[in-house]
Amino acid sequence: MFKIDPIGFVESSFKESAPPEEMRKHQSTIVIKPELADGLYKIERNQYLQIIFYFDQSEGYNLKGPRYHGKERGVFASRSPRRPNPIGVTTVELIKVEGNKLTVDGLDALDGTPVIDIKPYADVMDKPAVD
Prior knowledge:
about 130 residues, mainly beta, Elongation Factor Tu (Ef-tu), domain 3, 6-stranded antiparallel barrel, two-stranded antiparallel ribbon
């Protein structure tokens, strides 16, 4: 096994699950642990970030089943938080940086959600390659 420690936590007005499209309309704050704050150096040069987080309130999973809009899919063909490894990824817009706090727009994570990594969105790496 391996161990992943959170680098920080989400501060959000959403305390309970809500539709992702509603959550993404609001700003959130990501508070990075003070001892890791130097890792944010020059992060403001990025307009968009990918936030990787742990669905800490998700319990169990089904490999197949109805999804948010009712159609059956496999868990790996969906963005369900109920996964064998409950990890979420959302691309957000960086609004501002204040010390170890990032204000972002578009994060669909609940208040207190552990953040396990942040990566800058890079078109060259994240946009699908087309022949």
